[in-house]
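Quick log. Single chain, no ligands specified.
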Amino acid sequence: MPALHPRLAASLVAIVVAITPACRSNDSEARSTSRTAGSSASTARSVPAANDSLSQLADRGRIQGSASAPVWLVEVSDFQCPYCRMWHDSTYSAVVRDYVSTGKVRLAYLNFPLQMHVNALPSAEAAMCASVQSKFWPMHDALFNSQEKWERLADPSAFFDSLATRAGVDRTQWTTCVTKHLMRPLIEADKSRSEQRGVQSTPSFFIGDETIAGAQPYSEFRAAIERQLAKASKSPAR
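-> predicted structure:
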């Protein structure tokens, strides 16, 4: 299946979900997704070679930060989840300012669209198709900033089109990607990979070998990142 950087994959460890500000998968969804995890992986592997290059572009586009950053932060999220937006609005920019922009942390986004959110999958496709053109993060911000405007739309495609256009994508290429669902296998692979590591709610985070469940305050992330930076500084150089 399409994979993130090996160091990123290695950072995904089992997570214990407590009572947190998070969108939870319901029991029926959990049973459904556990039954389909194998088929999702198979679907991802079946993408033609021509589309593999698009997946690779999309995969790189949803990662930000220096390649030499000593700590990975992986966000597992759903664009329609109100708690994911809460984290975006309250903590994301501070993490980017203090750690990503300073070369200390590399941040990646994994999709975990919940079935109870009817526009979660279309929004993930819109973002990942923008990622093919290195416009994931502007689209990521636009989707969260306008969540209340599109979350209940019967068909959000026109709204997403306007967001993507403002983000600067090539509209023809983006539309082809979305209408042909070229990113769906990658999104399904994201969710399958996260489920295999125990994720049951959004947002969930992997910071080095630590996990955080829910839209916790910035202080929680700062403390975890500082611990991981301290640990990385004691590790022998590779």
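Residues 5-19, 27-51 have pLDDT under 50 and may be disordered.
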